[in-house]
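Methods — Computational structure assignment.
A single polypeptide chain was analysed. Its primary sequence is given first, followed by the predicted tertiary structure written as structure tokens.
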Amino acid sequence: MSPPAFSDVAKSSNDLGLLMQALQLLNKDFYHTAATKIDVKSKAPNGVAFNVKGTSAHEGPTSGSIEAKYTDPAAGKSPRLFLIFNTISQTLYGPQNCETIVASITSKGARILIKIHRAGLTLTQAWTTANVLNTKLELDNNIAKGLKAEALTDFVPSSQKFGAKLNLYFKQPNFTGRAFFDVLKGPTANVDAVLGHEGFLVGAEAAYDVNKAAITKYSAAIGYSALDYSAAITATNSLSVFAASYYHKVNSQVEAGAKATWDSKGSNNVGMELASKYRLDPTSFAKAKVNDRGIAALAYNVKLRPGVTVGLGVSLDTQNLNEAAHKIGTSFEFEG
């Protein structure tokens, strides 16, 4: 089994969901961060998936996006291609994604049918309310076993600005590596790797700017993950911001987690966050968290019916209850 990516070494500690499943981030499912969020997903019979998102912030304009995603799964097709050889002992070698089959052999030669496999591409196109066109092309587990490649572009029609990025993900037993290249800005490269063995994790990250010919940042992390708990220590921002976190699945209904953060270049204070999740029944759960600044957040999530989920959240400044510093938010998800 492959270890998590570097950014996810502390994920179980920063998540309040079941391990090895869709983990809920420490700051996810707390709906007070926006006044209203809506997420609508649908899928056409030919496999094209559509996703419309909208967010109404407490301050600032409303933002949104519309996205279409098409996946062409790896498969084979058999064209009518036959090759005749005068010498039937000759061997034919094809590319890795082709399969050769001898259909019949006669005294005059061999008739060979070539079966060509499609690569299996995923194309995603999105258009945002900021008038940005985003395109992503994915090729997963085809170039090499365990390797996923992504090509991403963004285009702003109003200013004619164009961006291009290349991402590589490589997973093997006990190893996970990633590389992110910004082709036009810099160019820059961000590379990270994680080694795992019997629950222990060790990872490192570095960023390099070609124009500056220098390493711009570096980070390190260590962690341990067991069946019902995990812990991690990270040092980010060129080893200047330190964080320690843990996650504990108390039982089938209760989960808890905490995180402490210290910025060595800032004040001497240590930031603290404590959160818990309680599953009320199979279709709903409640979450609560509080930090060292006295900000408390409550959230409630319920699945009303298949494909319809509603979230309610509130944030309270417990040190200034008489002031208008509190926030309320809602979230609606529809999937068909």
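Note: The longest strand covers residues 161-172.
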